[in-house]
Amino acid sequence: MNLVDNIHKVLLNEAQPPSQSFLGQLSVPFHQILLQVIYFRAHCRFWLVDATLPLGIDALRLTFDSARTQLDLDLERDMELLFAVFDQCTRPDINVSSVTWLTRCQDPDVIKSSLESLTRQM
Is the pLDDT assigned to residue 77 strictly greater than 70? Predict the structure, then answer.
């Protein structure tokens, strides 16, 4: 079993979903390490990007919502990692069609949430 296969299984794990780590619902959060590994390995497989992008977009929304109400270094670090992963996963040489991720960003109002977070921090 290789690293990419294991990452894919972690992303789809129902017993300990990464979303719970982002929400702080796990005693040992693992999302920052997972995001770092994904960032460096996202270019390897398209299906890894397909599994990572929805998680990243949903996590961005949660992070933006949290950032509107509190200032926290962990949130800032999460945002940096999420932006890096998002950037890696939406590169034109990896993700040919922008329709998928643009649609996904519009569904949970990620763009609106990011702008609201930005305006409240200023």
Answer: yes
